[in-house]
Amino acid sequence: MNLKTQFVHFFSTVACVAMAASASAATASFAMNQPTPGPDDIVNLQGANEEAKNVNEGDHDAIYVADDRPTQGQTFTTGTNAGGYVLRAITLREVAFDTYALVPDLTYTIRITQPADGKLSVLSSETAKVAADAAGNFPTIGDGNDKGNGSGRFITFNLEKPVTLKPGTIYGFDVNGGTERHYWQWDGTDTDAYHGGVAYSLQKGKMAERTGDHVFAVALSRAAVTESAKADLPVSTTRRANSGNAAESK
């Protein structure tokens, strides 16, 4: 091996190590009982008792976390704490009524987003590897082609790197399970159960707002007040309408 080849191998190794170090890994856990909200958490625990009453009247493109469906998400509005908030985890729920489910080993991508000025900015992106036989995981129903009762269980993604959020600001999160064949139905409602946000899907790189809200919990803790945070306080906030599109930016 000549000197030039040694340098190529050395820098390739360094680049691979750097890329591995920069990747953030979330962890996932499951529970049968709904989460107990903390004082600053943002939640909607109102779901559906049948598919037609889920988000967007049960439109599969709006309710399934699946390899062949759009990425699903939910927006929310932070509170008034002057120092802002730190987002540490998000929770979703699988439906408890008749549904389809195929859940192999998956690598989920969890993103924290911010819709503004017609664009969807990505503030954070982490992945979480979840084995099919992970304790409490959503079970595959039959061979995936038959309907059966959903588990009604909750999945919580704990972020490796918490995300700082400003007060009185609209943010969002979305989740997808990668390219491995999979599908399970995210619980929610076609009513405006949570007034500070709305369910959304990503269709061809654009954010499409849906009718209703998903079942979700965003775990927040208060950040310390700083002079810079005080200066950044918004004068007022408004809820986004329950229709329309926003382009995505990264």
Structure write-up:
With 250 residues, this protein is mainly beta. The protein has one domain. It is 13% helix and 40% strand. The chain has helices at residues 3-22, 55-58, 60-63, 227-231, and strands at 27-31, 42-44, 64-66, 71-77, 85-93, 98-99, 106-116, 119-130, 148-149, 154-165, 170-176, 183-185, 188-189, 199-203, 206-209, 213-214, 216-222, 245-249. The strands form five sheets. It has a seven-stranded mixed barrel with strand order 4-11-7-8-18-15-14. It has a five-stranded antiparallel beta sheet with strand order 1-10-5-17-2, with no helix packed on it. A two-stranded antiparallel ribbon has the order 3-12. It is globular, with a radius of gyration of 20 Å.
pLDDT < 50 runs, ≥5 residues: 3-22, 235-245
Structural class: mainly beta
In total, the number of domains comes to: 1
Count of β-strands? 18
SSE topology string: HEEHHEEEEEEEEEEEEEEEHE
Spatial order of the strands in the main sheet? 4-11-7-8-18-15-14
Give the helix tally.
Answer: 4
Shape: globular
Mean pLDDT: 87
**Proportion of residues in helical segments:** 10-25%
What's the main sheet like? 7 strands, mixed, barrel
Radius of gyration: 20 Å
- End-to-end distance, in Å? 41 Å
> What portion of the residues fall into strands of 2 or more residues?
35-45%
